[in-house]
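Page header: ASSEMBLY MODEL / two components / 401 residues total.
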Amino acid sequence: MTVNYLPPPRPLPEQRVQQLREHLQRFVVTEREPAPKRSRWRRRGFLGGAGAAILLAAGTGTAVAYVLLHPKPVTNFTSARCYRTATYTGTGASFPGMELASAPGKNWAGGIPHALDACAQMWAGGFMQPGLPSGHPPQGGYAVPPLVGCTLPNGIAAIFPGPPDTCERLGLPAQTPVPTLHGKPAPAITLRPSSPG
Amino acid sequence: MSGADNSDGALWARACAGDEHAFGALFVRHVDAVYAFCFRRLGSYAAAEDAVQVVFMDTWRKRDSVTVEESLLPFLYGVASNVVRNASRATRRYAGLLLAAPHEDEVADHADEVADRLDDERQMQAVLAAFRKLPQREQEALALCDWQDLSHSEAAAVLGVPVGTVKSRITRGRKRLRAALGVSEPNGVEPGGSTSEGVRGESS
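Prediction written out in full:
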């Protein structure tokens, strides 16, 4: 020690160093994978599907009319939330999952336009596993559950595991345009029957 | 540079080319220095451990703008300086990505070690209470040169200021800090001396 008013330096325990090393290596592997690129949002497919559903309901003359929940576009791309469980308690700092931040660098430098893909990478990389297991990931990566994209009140994308009605169940608007996973439409649009009458 | 050597530059090049184990080797090489730096700026071992992870994750995300010729450590110190300046915000950015501390039942019970660490934290907090009254620029210069043994020129490179500026900040900061702490000057060296305690001689 070079000055006498500081406590002596204490290194991290060797076991902890190795845990952190493995964790950082997983982080590096996950971050270096480029997000699949898509040429455009699939707005046309989304609107076409919704219109067809409404026309179909009117044409049958049934008492059930389908109304679209009010999907909301993501307006804040500086971060995105990957939820480990389908629970939502507000936009506070504490939630079950991880927040992805846009940062200078190769990935997400200009924001996170494809949060569903980014969160799928987090699941595949093992970062969403309870307890963040150490050691090498299994062959082919960790399992990625069905994911759904919702929009938080602050305009940030929130990706939850669960069935297509997860946003509705949580009281959140689905994302619009439809978020996609690896370039394919993800089942995030929810149609529900209105009250009869 | 040789592709087979284990210099920082070679490891960094391999890491950027996709070798995560090279990045892991750089982590192991520099983690103690970064950990000590973060602990001394934060006064908490737990906070320092989180900050260390943020420093290396931030470094990786900035890899496109990093050129390592000799040592990665000065760049790590630069990132760490930014991280500890607002540690809570920095760790929030990586919420969920940081490896949590092991549960108590996973850690061997070394009562003496725990007690020593608590003493360290109390001692460091007392130092920081005085240290944080210094201007931010003097804090950064002192932390790099007096606490981490960087030379004036190395600190100048980290902080992006001329060497003379680093020297003057250290002189002023050292004087202020010693007065606040009530500690005496090291033997034979006056505050503002050119070869004072904790600062290696300049090579430039």
